[in-house]
Amino acid sequence: MLAVDGWGLVAIGIAGILAGLINALAGGGTLVTFPTLVALGIPPIAANVTSTVALCPGYLGATLAQWKEIRAQQHYWPWVLPIAVFGGLVGALLLLQTDEKVFSSLVPWLILLASILLALQNPLRNWLKQRLQNPAHAHLPVWWVVPLVCLGAIYGGYFGAGLSVIILAVLALVLEGTLTELNALKQAVAFCVNVAAAVFFLFSGEVVWLAAGIMAIGALIGGMLGGKLAGFINPNHLRTLVVTLGITIALVYWFK
Fold this sequence. Notes:
With 256 residues, this protein is an all-alpha fold. 79% of the residues lie in helices and 0% in strands. Helix 5 (77-97) runs parallel beside helix 10. The relative contact order is 0.22.
């Protein structure tokens, strides 16, 4: 049960709005919601579970927005997406089997990893554009997509922040396609991972429902704001701010 005062609930709502806005423009909303919940006294595993459930609906909107491109990947998604679901479930199971003290010790490393992945998002896209413009670029054998997507999905089910960067890199190394097509497939994979983990978490007893509900509403509002502010906010500047915040939070956890 969430034992916070009215200001704590306001903080949760604001965190949800910021996360929805950040996810819509740059990615990395978990780096706002997770530390907020922990700061309000929610144990780290429950905070991670609650954040995953709360932010899950936002992935639906992003996936539907690219549904046409995703359907065009019919030679890939029928066997890539089940792998994503499986990996998401495995990651969620591993999280719930992790001792609270062990997970607490992993938190700064996970936040730092997510921050680094977010910082690599633009360099990765630039590399992909150059790679895809060269018709002679080499790919790994296509079967590599199975273990690589599975490993990325396990990470996504366990913590999740930065998952999209991992999946996009994996798909570009293994599969043929344009950046738009690979990005759409990446979005579908991230959606499946997060939904699988969130559904699994619904029955875990770890979800703080009041916080999840308030945060989900805030995230949906933030997502809509992100769509309206897209022309006024530089996503690169926002991403830099989120990365700096993530690294700062990781350092705070280490020295705490």
